[in-house]
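Journal club prep — side note

Before the paper discussion, L.F. wants everyone to see what a predicted structure for a comparable chain looks like in token form. Sequence:
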Amino acid sequence: MVLNVKTKLTACAVLAALAALGAASTAQALIEAGDVKLPPWIHGDGLNSYFPERPLRREISGVAVIHCKVDGRGKLSQCTAPAESPADYGFAQASLAMAPRLTTDLAPAAQAPVKDGAVDIPVSFFSRHAGRVTKPVWVKQPDAGDIMPVYHPAVTDQQGGIAVLRCEVSWAGRLERCVVARQSAPGLGDAALQLAPLFKMGLLDGEGTPVAGRQVDVPVEFRVH
């Protein structure tokens, strides 16, 4: 009878251990399903664990901006969260919680936008299921005056055409690590690459999802007038 009790206790212990292991695996899977993006002049480790669980389980991305004082070592203090989107999903609270683990790079080359001893830090939380940006909200694009100088040397037949760049979006909405996905005529892709630094999108796409760290396809059309 004692043996049976011990056997039952052992079985219960095994089941409890398996349940704990399963919970840990689920938690780790959730952490791996989300990503936290910060500007390059902010440093911190283990930040994905701060992704709020409710939006992560629902594959909802978001962004928050925290305003903090910065000391001479780059440490943050007296942080507030003046903005978050979407609201009521815990993105502002999570950003404030991670603030003690963040350090501002004060080296001149880092170009951290510290003003009057304070800094605004955009914190992007995005589900890795978010995929490529398909509805970018552009706040800056090249105009005809930018396009013509790179268009004429690149295209000899003057028939116009299109090139599509595939780029990664930086924390500031800039295009990085662009490659030519396709082009309708030789030379158009190289011309489009010269224009990539002139594009900038908002921190959120047309669906309210952060764009930092995601890929985007950017069509660049060349026309003959």
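L.F.'s comment for the group: The longest strand covers residues 76-85. Keep this in mind when we get to the figures.
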